[in-house]
Amino acid sequence: MSIEMSLQRPRVTSPAQSTRAAKAARRDPRTELRPIRIIITTLAIAFLSIFVVLPLVVVFAEAFAKGVSAYATALIDPEALSAIRLTLLVALVSVATNLVCGLAAAWAIAKFEFPGKTVLITLIDLPFSVSPVISGLVFVLLFGAQGFFGPWLQAHHLQILFAFPGIALATVFVTFPFVARALIPLMQEQGTQEEEAAISLGASGLQTFFRVTLPNIKWGVLYGVLLCNARAMGEFGAVSVVSGHVRGETNTMPLLVEILYNEYQMVASFAIASLLAMLALITLIAKTVLERQLDEEVPRDH
Amino acid sequence: MTIEARGVVKTFGTFKALDNVDLKVANGELLALLGPSGSGKTTLLRIIAGLDWPDSGEILFDGENALERGVRERHVGFVFQHYALFRHMTVFENVAFGLRVKPRKIRKSEAQIRSKVSELLDLVQLDWLADRYPNQLSGGQRQRVALARALAIEPRILLLDEPFGALDAKVRKELRQWLRSLHNDLNVTSIFVTHDQEEALEVAHRVVVMDKGRIEQVGAPTEVYDNPATAFVHGFIGESITLPVEVSAGHVALNGRPLDITAEDAASGASTLFVRRHDMLIGPAGSGSLQGAVTHVRSFGPVQRAEVALAEGPTTIEIDAPRDRELKVGDLVGLKPRRYRIFAG
User: Does the residue A196 lie in any domain?
Assistant: First the structure.
């Protein structure tokens, strides 16, 4: 027998031989029987349709229930515009603050050893484990008229609660973990060797950060910012407690959705909601793209 | 530049990484720090580089206190074990990094940087890979990029942490010779860390053998191999036969049976006899100082490796014998150590 012939696989798949028993014996051990596969897949799709796709469709259907012009009118209403402006501003402040603080926290945790590190890691997660309402309440207790800083703030005519600063503070608090959580595992994985190399080559601390550390984590940073932004725009509980619901002034988009809904202004309510839903969809797509990029940042060699 | 370490101590928690280490490195020398993992060799290298700080002791560069200066001011070229190349930069930018981060006053022009980097890439024979990214290179290529990058800052000393540790055997051998000839050309004081004795003995001018944070022996490769100063060095470098023996008043005994060798200056008490595998001579049964039966023979290259079960004790030893007289399983033989060392303990 020639070598080429001996290397050929024996043909066991000829139609004549493929009896039912043989088929069962050759079944891929990693997969389930066909009926089971169908049941499980149907279940998953049904669940997603009812709990995810359907609500999304309803939002847009309700928003456009009285036509495109009604939808547009609802969106250019001064109250709506004010809410959109406030939401964007709050998101901007939260993202900027949490970008800087999250980077600092992640850097400290991933690159240095210091006492109290475990406590810090736990504290970073705190906003996730506390109910948003409590998060808002904390700021009422701190900055409210009867609160800890209340008298001092009143004496200096500083308004924090029921105004932009309060809403921003509560949102920053609730969204703090996103950037830090996205970066800590990434930076821990990457280690400190590249930084050490940079310093040994004469780079200063800032040069090392901007030329080595930051380029290595840029996708992770964007990922954190994206999630942070999505939550900052969508936050309801904490903001609801500190906002005071002053119409046209301290209502963010989620708060306005609730108010309009309670007043039976369905089109207006769902029009604003549709904006938030679109934000969610954009976030979802961007997240998928970023996750692909992020995979490349995790070191694969060594 | 000369390097000197005086009484360097470093502990991590309760682990003593360096225990009072003294070391002098001559100008232009190529020195190997050799030891098992956890022996403190990398810690010593990092302290010399300024990436770690000793708990106590001194580091002197040309007689000047180096500990006053941070890693940036020491002008040390450091090659990391896993290369630590900047993964988002091309090979060219990796090598150029040290030149680009210099303060504006002393920074070279873009054209000068370009020509310097090309020169370095020529030196490490990688000019054709300038536009690649680190993850597109083989291990040996990464290693050479890391070296070029370290050389770009014209370091006064070159420190290499396990330079060939992550490479396969063939590439290691090539890079060894290449490193030695490169060192001859550059003549910069260099220290490299390795756990591979062959690498240390083949490449370095002098070898520093370390164990448990202490220096066991410093010497030329021949000296370290031929005259091990301690039991650890004898056991770590080269392959040795070790036998637990009893020394009393100049006599040596194995399991109560006297051996026909002198204890030289070994102190009385429980000791260990060290013999290199090729220093145990095989003769006819009844001759020599040990008796045994051949239980296994493997022949390759210029030697045959025989396993011999000793009559004196329940031990089997491996001996490398020349192939002038072929051994067979079952042969009764007499053994005589041509050269040996006895260390207490």
Answer: yes
A175 shares its domain with A286 = yes
Q: Which residues of B touch A300 (CB under 8 A)?
A: 135
Summarised one tens digit per residue, pLDDT across range B130-159 is 999 999 999 889 999 999 999 999 999 999
Residue ranges of A 200-239 with Cβ closer than 8 A to chain B: 200-204, 207, 211-212, 215-216
To test the contact with chain A by mutation, choose from B12, B71, B97, B113 the residue with the greatest count of A C-beta atoms within 10 A, namely: B97
Q: Please check whether residue A252 lies inside any domain of the structure.
A: yes
Contact B91, B129 (CB under 8 A): yes
Tens digits of residue pLDDT in B60-91: 999 999 999 988 888 999 999 889 999 999 99
Q: How many domains does chain A have?
A: 2
B78, A196: Cβ pair inside 8 Å? yes
Residue with token string 């690498």: B199
Render pLDDT for A279-295 as a digit per residue (tens, 0 to 9): 989 998 998 888 888 87
B166 touches chain A (CB under 8 A): yes
Which residues are CB-neighbours of B21 under 8 A, at least 6 positions away?
B5, B7, B8, B9, B40, B44, B57, B213, B214, B215
A178 and A231 Cβ atoms separated by less than 8 Å: yes
Q: CA dist B245 to B273, B312, B343, Å? A: 6, 11, 10
Complex prediction ipTM: 0.83
Domain shared by A184 and A259, yes or no? yes
Mind telling me how many Å the CA of B101 is from chain A's nearest CA? 5
**Band of pLDDT at residue A27, cut at 50, 70 and 90:** low
